[in-house]
Fold these 2 entries.
Entry 1:
Amino acid sequence: MKPHLQALLTLQDRDDELSQLETRMDALKPRFAALDAERVAAERQRSTTRAAIEREEQRQRELSSRADDFRRLNARAIAAMDHVHKVREANAASAQVDISRRALADVENELSAVNHRLSTLRDSDTAAELNLAELDERQAAVRQELEAARGKLEAEIGEARGRRQEAARHVDPRTLQRYDRVRSRRRQRSVFALRGTSCSNCDTAVPTQRRAALASGDLVDVCESCGVLLYAES
Ligand SMILES: [Zn+2]
């Protein structure tokens, strides 16, 4: 085999090695993303619970303050009963006592419902907190493993790039330019041998003249059908 052609095929092998490493690196990305998404979901659950707790606590403060108001009103109404002298005044005072007592009972019912919801929410918050801590612990090992794999691949990719550059130095600039153009478009193997009279990638027959040129001196030619670089095996 001609040394120029051998150099081009070596370059292609180096690019294939590099592509494989890059594919493995790309495959790590969704795994990192999945871990991040899982953590974001757990955090969101916790912050939703915390927001609900804050709302209920606010409501609890409002209701407690209203309950105090009604308790004072009720006490005042009861005290007023002692000072009435006429039947009409007694009826009015008694009505005041009833109204304030009923209002207080309503608020206390509502307050009890809020307290019950708060207790459930605080349990959820404890569970969410625990869940997050467990998730972090579980993820730590996986993340460490993934980061180690990424570090190793980064080093391997660096070395593969070095070997690729070294291989490219042995390919003549014009061929290199054509090869790089085809490779960057296809993102996979780009140099194929003629098989009989056809392109071994797409099986389309190559015109006689172009085959003759490949056989006699041209290192490579572009397949008119699929766009790969063709060479003739000597
Ligand atoms: Zn072809």
Entry 2:
Amino acid sequence: MPPLPEPPRRWWLLGLLLGLATPALAKPTGPAAFCAEYPTAPACQGTQPACTYCHVAPPQRNAYGAALEPHLAPGKPRPLSDEDFAAALPAALRAIATADADGDGAPNQFEVEQGSLPGDATSVPPSGVCGGGENPQFKVCQYDPRFVYRRMLSDFCGTSPTYVQVATFVELGNPDTQRAFIDQELDRCLQSDFWRGKHGQLWKVAHPKIRPIGSIKSGEDAGQIPLADYDDDYALFTWSQTDDHDARDVLTATFHVKRAGTNPTTYTSTPSLPSQTVDAAHRAGNMTSAWTLTSFVMFTALPRNAASQMYRAYLGLDIAKQEGLHSVASEPRDYDAKGVQAPQCAACHATLDPLSYPYRNYNGISGVLSNRYLPNRLELLFPNDVATLKNTPEKGVILGQPVNNLLEWARVAANSDAFAISTVTDYWKLLVGHAPLPEENEEFVRTWQAFRSTHGYRVQKMLHDLIRTEAYGAP
Ligand SMILES: [Ca+2]
Ligand SMILES: [Ca+2]
């Protein structure tokens, strides 16, 4: 199995776009280093800046890239290594923060914060006035409680208000009273099966993370080759997003969750489940579920797919799209001899391989040893593989931070900006209808920062904030 399920042509194109096929000089670590400096910039919310942020077409720089260049480790011989570049970028960004590289009148940092392009004079910060147009039904460009009431019932309860309900709501009169009523109704809807039941809205949010495949499902509605039960993954995910639970549990839980009943559907934590086989000391939420190990580790020695899927699913960082690259010096080491040191692979694998090492002892599919943590797994189960395979360490690196094992990996991931941003982005997309737009950025950033610091990662509390934003509540 190739290290990444990407057809060669796309890699070649990406390589060309990023200048990897030439000696110069776009840096795959640039976007991640940029976002570390500007974590609240619109270009860093649930995505990362494209190469066109700094380049016309790599290696040719646009006005912003050109303004940065002389401030990047001046005096150091070119080309800079990825590590030197990433280390020098923050100071260079600060050095030109108040300049106006593209001459459109808006300073660079202001453009970065407002979501326009600092290297393109035709891209200017939004005026801050939301679009015109008359709507007789609603107050356009202004938060409208009656609109929110209807929208909220539809989004969270799956129903439209009756004429009587709307009339009663309008009679509440005072907007504060109306908002309090909406909050109360939101709490009621968050208990509904439409929101939290089997195949409800929360399950839909989880689909791309879990990627169910019915033919190999075990348990309820088992497929023809029952290998693992992803209902457990949906149960932990839903549990982590409901009631007063910490959303980070989806990555860090050492317990499992059992679903029962309908209307209401209940989710209860439990120390063990017959369908789960990793011992409690080596569990990291859905990262080590039987389903994740079966479907993403499968038969591979070094589980790159599992690591990249978790990175994409829970941090919103897609390595195949060159997102979240934090190159580790001296990587990739290519312990499994897959040829990942080739120039067109190394840029991604310098991040992906150290991200994958902590999975080395988590076994996928192999009879009675399936879906378990096995110390010395590579030595035990892959004795005929290339000799260097057994040198694969369990220690790895995520987001530039060294970790000793997958549990530490999960903790660093769960506490990162990327996790909070990605979690709130999921709901922004579901409820507002799209990823946050530059003009919504201020509200979006306020929402994910409060989700983390004020609400202690409680999704339900964050949802009360979200439905109070203009992005949600202005028709
Ligand atoms: Ca400018
Ligand atoms: Ca501009």
